[in-house]
Write a structure and sequence with these properties.
CATH class of the domain at 2-174 and 220-246 and 287-303: Alpha Beta
Distance between the termini: 29 Å
Structural class: alpha/beta
Number of helices: 10
Mean pLDDT: 93
Order of helices and strands: EHEEHEHEHEEHEEEHEEHEHHH
Low-confidence stretches: none
CATH topology of the domain at 2-174 and 220-246 and 287-303: Rossmann fold
Largest sheet: 7 strands, parallel
Shape: globular
Strand order of the largest sheet: 3-2-1-4-5-6-11
Number of strands: 13
């Protein structure tokens, strides 16, 4: 049995699809579906799992040993809003909840793979290395990033990461992110903006060393994320913190052009001033150092934004069913 917390969310439901594709269906999904306005439930509608457990009930049931034969817990459940202002909520939901799951896994020798975040790197001035030795030098810029960083530090202190895996996801895009609202990817927003206006707007640069739209990000296709997670399930000797990104920084202009190309349109891009409230916290460059992941043995080729966006736009966003579904063929990068 495999348990996925946040299993109806973006990466969680994508991982459920990946496991179904591998022939695994003895899976328990843990989540909070919220109101019907988000339609988060649709992320599960084409997938197979054994049971659904409400998020608030799960830790107590777990500690009472209500589940038998657990081989792994994939802990993706969290409040992932970088603009969340309720610090106490983030500490309870992202830190305290994770500690209970991790403690249980270590006490019962259960494989744990959990979501950390690239938000732990802050402004990037201390680099993007996932080496545990540099963990204490990181200074996140928001409370979400700090809640994830706090758990990473706790996991190191209690030797959790000698056996478990923490994943620092960079800028993930792809199917099943539609419920995320303002936190959805730039690709998703670009698709709808271009469809509505025939054009796309990006932030101007407020630094002389970057032209408008040339700010750089590590964009990673969600199916690459699930391939990495599946590999980690199959290779339990791999442990510690791992960056999950493409390892290649690309500009927002590149992303916009790839989206226009996927829609068979000529690029029409304009630039708007960045709000002053963002200017001091804005990252002009992010790039996952995936050396440690490669050295651990993951050797598969990762997807370029041109390939990933084309697949996302044509096979999902432009289709009648934009969700992951077990009836679809496997994606070939």
């Amino acid at each position: 049995m495999i348990i996925i917390t946040g299993g109806a969310g973006f990466i969680g439901s994508a991982m459920l699809w990946e496991l179904n594709r591998m022939g695994k269906e003895n899976i328990i999904v843990v989540d909070d579906l919220g109101s019907t306005t988000t339609e988060k439930w649709r992320n599960l509608s084409g997938l197979h799992f054994a049971d659904f457990i409400p998020k608030d009930l799960f830790p107590e049931l777990l500690e009472k040993k209500a589940f038998e034969g657990i081989s792994a817990i994939i802990h993706m459940g969290a409040n992932s809003s970088t603009t969340e202002t309720d610090a106490d909520h983030l500490l309870v939901n992202n830190f305290g909840y994770s500690k209970r799951i991790a403690t249980f896994c270590m006490e019962h020798d259960i494989r744990l793979i959990y979501a950390s975040s690239a938000a732990t790197y802050g402004d990037g001035s201390n680099g993007y290395s996932d080496a545990i030795e540099g963990l204490t030098t990181l200074r996140p810029l928001n409370m979400y990033g700090y809640s994830k960083h706090l758990f990473d530090c706790w996991a190191v202190k209690h030797n959790i990461l000698n056996h478990a895996v923490g994943l620092k996801f960079f800028n993930v895009y792809g199917p099943n992110e539609y419920h995320k609202g303002d936190m959805s990817s730039v690709v998703y927003k670009a698709f709808h903006q271009i469809g509505k206006n025939g054009a796309m707007t990006l932030f101007q640069s407020h630094r002389p060393d970057y032209l408008d739209g040339e700010q750089l990000r590590d964009f990673v296709y969600v199916r690459d994320c699930t391939r990495i997670m599946a590999w980690l399930l199959e290779n339990p000797s791999a442990a510690g913190l791992f960056n999950v990104g493409s390892g290649t920084p690309r500009s927002f202009n590149d992303l916009a052009k790839a989206t226009f190309s996927a829609l068979d349109r000529e690029p029409v891009i304009s630039y708007t001033p960045m709000p002053e409230t963002l200017q001091q916290k804005y990252q002009y460059y992010t790039c996952a150092d995936i050396t440690k992941l490669r050295e651990a043995g993951f050797s598969e080729t990762l997807t370029s934004i041109e390939e990933g966006i084309n697949e996302y736009v044509q096979n999902y966003l432009s289709s009648g069913n934009p969700y992951f579904d077990t009836r679809e063929p496997a994606f070939q990068a």
